[in-house]
Write a structure and sequence with these properties.
73 residues; elongated
Amino acid sequence: MPVYEYVCTTCSHKFDKIQPMGATQAECPHCEQPARKAISLFTATATSEDGLPMPVTGIGGGGCCGGGCGCGV
């Protein structure tokens, strides 16, 4: 099962939870009120020759201003 990020609609607490793919909400562990899925972002990194992490650059996102439509050029 995937891990989803949630934000509580009552107290704004952010948390992660393992949920089935069809789940749309979860109970907030802080206030026990309904929470909704948040949009998750991740950071891609690469490793240099000396083993140190370095950011990945030059990857187009494909969306508007991500290189896919040409408006960010």
